[in-house]
Amino acid sequence: MFDVHTHLVGGHLGARGLHDILLYHMVISDLYAAGAPSGERLTQFPGLPTPEEAHQRLAEAIPYLRLIQNTSCAWGVRLILRDLYDWNDPITPDNWRRLDGMIRERADDRAGGIRSWIG
What we know:
Blueprint: H1 18-22, H2 25-33, H3 51-61, H4 72-85, H5 96-106, H6 110-118
């Protein structure tokens, strides 16, 4: 398996929550360009963003998703959510916490996540 640009960190290869997908630095750049208040990355390795930091930044970014829906980053996010988490709905202020919980629930499932991805 090759990782050409996703900044994977050994021991945390899967997403630990929606923030690891939706607030990836390239998506943050698109969201910030669309008017989201913060263009800064979340706490980086070797540190980890706290749940409070991740949730605060997700809450402020979600309203701007509709403005980047036609970008390649948004397309990539949709593919990841569809293929790895079976999520096909738009992310909204009303449902993002449910999606975040689903991702967090699977974060430490080292075998199940890979099995579902490779069939």
